[in-house]
Target: AraC family transcriptional regulator
Amino acid sequence: MGWVESIQTAIDYMEEHLLENITIDSISKQANASVFHFQRTFTILTDISVGEYLRRRRLTLAAQELANTDHKIIDIAYKYGYETPEAFSKAFRRQHGIKPSDVRKNVGKLKSYNRLVIQVSLKGAEPMKYKIVEKESFQVVGVKREYSCTNDENLKSIPKFWHDVHIDGTDDLLFQLNNGEIKGVLGICANHKNEASTQTIDYWIATAYNGDTSKGLQTLEIPASKWGVFEVHGPMPDAMQKTWKMIFSEWFPSHQFKHAGTPELEVYSNEDPSSPDLYSEIWIPLK
Model:
């Protein structure tokens, strides 16, 4: 099953179990993917998180039920996963811009988020520049933080991590230390852990480095792999996000490769991140 088909299978599962307390772990299993890789791919392809998709769909169906039945608001709130009418009303107003009681009075307009259907258009109009390379294992040094994948915490917190290493000078140190074949500072997702109560990842900001360091940095061994190395041209973060989307929506569906499941790399230079001529790379392990 390809990436796109697996995402659609997971979407179908979410739709079939919208009224249940489903977990990101159970959803990702439908796609035969780790929690992190499923979340990442889903967000890249749809521009929203898994949690946001579930919220939008539940509140869309709740609005339809309010408009078409005389069921009590409190019962509808419980049905769609809200413990109190107040919590339901707050979420409802945030999505629709009106109160649940306004629906019964035919006041205001509702927003309908329909069931997602993933479709891929292999136009090939905009070429992707990439190469396939074989690379032995190599060492990186840097700093890491562990993030929970629950409630999309990792997606929200990783940008702050980059902000912190820029403020405290760690990124400057990493650029100075860089002496490996891959030039620049790397963003690395590694060590995906699936436990009964939570799913976590280690996110590294690091650089390829041969040698010992006593500068308070940690080391990580990147395993030998076949890599797809994709060029990224343009300012951050838009260019990086656009390339990720093209990789998963166009490149993977038209090639025989699959993601190997080992750490993937984003490679950043120390040039102006807002420059239209900025060059970066995405390294994806392939099998």
Remarks:
- The CA atoms of residues 71 and 237 lie 45 Å apart.
- The longest helix spans residues 50-68.
